[in-house]
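hey m, so remember when u said the tokens were messed up on ur end? i reran from scratch. heres the input so u can diff it against urs
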Amino acid sequence: MPDYKYQGTSRAGSSVSGVMTASSKSDLANILKRQQITPTKMTEKGKEFNIPVFGGGVSAKELAIFTRQFSVMIDAGLPLVQCLEILAGQQENKTFQKVLTATRSQVEGGATLSASMRSAPKVFDALYVNMVEAGETGGILDTILQRLSGYIEKNVKLQRAVKSALVYPVGVLTVAGAVITLLLWKVVPIFATLFAGLGVTLPLPTKIVITLSNIVGSYFGLLGIIGLAATIFGLKIWYGTPQGRYILDTIILKLPVLGILMRKIAVARFTRTLGTLISSGVPILEGLDITAKTAGNAVVERALQSVRKALEEGKSLTEPLKESQVFPGMVTQMIAVGEQTGAMDAMLSKIADFYEEEVDAAVKDLLTALEPVMIVFLGLVVGGVVISMYLPLFSLIGKLSDSH
């Protein structure tokens, strides 16, 4: 049962305060009433206030470095409050510094570390807090922090892999779009005026490019840009809804090349998260709930919630995983072996290691394949526009040569 801090007035009218264990605030109020105390304020110990997080927030890399340093300090035997004071003092990120200072103040006030961290959910998520709580309960906080830092570092590596896979094609497409827009808007109209003055018969490719140029330079072009921006914004808003997120995530997982990569990333994240939680002593049902919320994909999240529900009903972990049809057969088979041998955490970590290597290899292969494809695409599109502008000139030069 949680501890509550209370303030109130006694029957004699004097102010009283203290700490008392109770199942809830209403239970505490009844206890105080029996003691002839009228409560004026009741707050669960360690949850007196939420730590505000403003500004740029805290990156996963900064959190990983903090966790690694924290684990070393705890292992060296430094007191908890001193660790937090030192780490807050050397923190360059002002937002993180404020959070750590407030966390230290709460710990000094008698709150547990996990309860203090729970007050800053934007920095310390459910996974982080639950693992710290498990470490405090088991007396292995330094070990848990080492696992946490390793987990966050691997997660950062996964995120970097996704970004590196997407940055190149997005960058090339953006440059191609900008160049083509500039050509159609500024260069093509000059050629169109020249051709009109010469009275040249235009071939079909040139007519198409000039028509596109007229659209870009007209009121319809502006409407098209606004429409595209509105579509992107609308998709972003729709993706924020549960249904929209589920539909778009389903489409992403079914894409030919990117879908396979995203599925591997989802499996690596799921197995790494659940394996880390189980090895840290977090109950499997709670672990599945946290893993589902941090899955990063609505399809995987829904599948894991179904697995959790089936587990509550007494089924094994393997059966609902197979039924979800989200996870590859190899994953479910290895998890089944882990269940039978009682080494679930070790098996999940091995699966995560394997799929993280698969993600690295898939990203390298994708970038290797995309590079020539993007160069050819850029050359064909930009080159096509330029050549279509010169085709009438070639025709005109040919006619002039024939006349001489």
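this time it looks ok to me. The chain has three domains: 3-44, 60-153, 166-404. if urs says something different then somethings off w ur setup not the seq
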